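protien #1 (seq + structre)
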Amino acid sequence: MNWGRNFRLSVQALSRARVRTLLSASSMMIGIAAVTLLFGVGAGAEKAYQAALETMGKNLLSVGAQRKPGNALRGSSQRYQTLTLADWHVINDELDSVERAAPIAMNSFALRYGGKSVNMTVIGTSPEFQVTNNQLLKEGRFIDEFDLRKVSRVAVIGSQVAFELFQGVSALGERLLVGGAPFTVIGVLEEKGADITGSPQDNRILVPVTTALQRLLAVDYIDRIFVQAVSKAMIGSAMGELQELLRSRHSLTATSADDFTIRDQAALLSTLDKTDKSLSRFLTGIAALTLGLASVGLMAVSLLAVRERQGEIGLRLALGALPRQVLAQFLSEAVIIALLGATAGLLVGVFGIIVGAWLLGWQLALTGMSVLYTFLISLLLSLLFGAYPALRAARLDPIIALRGA
């Protein structure tokens, strides 16, 4: 079989019916563009998932103060104030399943420097926070044990704080006002972006937890404790030990509910990932529907072409063309239309990914595998939905075909 000759005949036939070819390729283009965007969403979600894993600490648990039942009509509630620095010390020093723990006491304060004023989140914490929450220093040093013991007025600032207050000038050694109290900048953090819940992490200022409690917040309780388990396998044991320890320390009876919560950060991340996958499945359904309609359109156009070209087919068969040659020609036409649509759809999809990622800030990405899958899908669909019209053309009786021409 002369495949080159069949290809030339297919191209000539398609060029004679340009409008029909364009419409058929356009329907395939829309379906392939939807599939490309779907791959972009999936790759972007995976990229975001990996980025979140890198920014958060490994084997991390979050122990937080539980909310009290509030006024149901107002929808308000307050948190228990039973988590203390003493709880943190016991967790950090006595639990075998815990590698390290970091306390958190936080609130929003006005920061002032050189006539500039911004509202930022101030977090009182300990040296362990640098490891538990993967805090990387751009310059300077982190909070140390000496700062905690001396209740030092020192601060480590996020990249956004450094930019807004110091405008690119080194902040080390500078004194800024936190809620009216002077603090000396000892370190600047690397940019981290948003955390797994979408909250920004670069608009924070870290101070010794003892300083935060005594000089800023004037309270004797903390908001939460980040706990890093010894290993992933020990997370379950750590959660059990934490619950037992805190219930005992808070003098809770067997019938009392916990006044604290324990959350596995990895489980939260997994939940968010499942949400992304649910969205991906929804988009998969839309893309499959679009491709299905495009494939039906391709088959309908091919059947129409067979009907309109009965005379041509009958003449070829009468002149000695074999049915398999006619079959190959019409299959070639279906493949060409599908590949044209796939190429155009891929370009449209890539443009959509670029626009979505650049202008709209969506999490989208393009991979080489998605390009390969796009063309494989279009090729498979062209063979599946082009086979029936091609078989009808190959099985035409030459005499009947010539009479119906």
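ok now protien #2
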Amino acid sequence: MQFRILALICLFLTQPSVAQADIKDRVKALAPNGLVLILDENGKPLVSQNADKTFIPASVAKIATAWLAMEVLGKDHRFETKFYLDDKRVLYVRGSGDPFLISEELELLAPKLLEATSKQAFTGIVIDTSYYPDDIKIPGIEATDEAYDALNSAFAVNFNTIHAIRKGKNVRSAEKQTPITPLAISQFIKRGPNGRGRISLSQEKPELSALYAGELLAALIAKAGGNNEGSITIGKLPADLEPVYIHRQSRDLTELLTAMLLGSNNYITNQVFLEIGANRKGGQVSLEKSLEVASELFAKHGLSNGITLVEGSGISRDNKFTADGLAKLLHQFAPHAELLKKTRKGSGYKTGTLSDVKTLAGFAVTKNHGLVRFVISLKGNTGKLRFRLLEAMEKEL
């Protein structure tokens, strides 16, 4: 009897190490050249394969931006858009970089704006975009029509894209909640595909972002019972005007970041990243301010040697992480792990994908080691392999 008890105790004590050996063999068999780091709850490595190499994080970098945003802006932060009215009933709109000014948000906004200003017709709409510099450039964002290359802007709608259906010179909205506008039609005829498609607004003329947003705002003001009888222009807000209505985004930062991480939207992410710098340093947004704030926080938490950001979304190949650096970042991000997308077994993760880069990082739910942190970076056409490795962690650890 004593022998049997002793044998059972020995079996129990050796199970985790056997599982650990199995997962190491499994990782090596599936991805012999891959970077894989798995740490237990205490930070002890369970698997460390090629973990000393730096890698391009791709959209896994969005975890860093989400953490920075929570640290600087706070979970209850809401982006604002301010409206002003002069004595000639010219409506001034001062954009503050709200990344989620979608059609549905404008539809919420319009009746409240009219309640504050009356339904008497506006004699013009002036968009003040001065919160963002005219020459803002984000590394990795190229001058293309692709939605993921949308230009960041102080006042833009629907992630600075147009979603439409084109048949020759006939263009209609692809979304029932989004009225088609003259600028949307002309831009889609000029640059959009035949059939259904989504294009970013031209980066050669950044003012198109604000002008289109103004047109869509005017259309939804009309739907709410108001009217604009004048032109829509870009201009400066007069110094003596006070806001008649301040619209606070219906989504707080927690909701916004959840959507950002789920959709892996580059435009939303860099809008949030730019706000981090302006919030801490004041004044007009700039990439330099945000990178400075990021560097300060990375240094404070011992992340300086493992996380190098040049922008917040991961679209730039000049972002560079180490596995240890990202694992330490995940430790800081752990209180916000619920923001991540989940597997069926409850593991939270974020993917990153460029043409030859496939990354995956987050928190895996395991049987013997509880919640473990993991970092995966693979090369080539290995998108599905990332998830096979995650499934192996869930089953075998």
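Confidence is low (pLDDT under 50) at residues 5-16.
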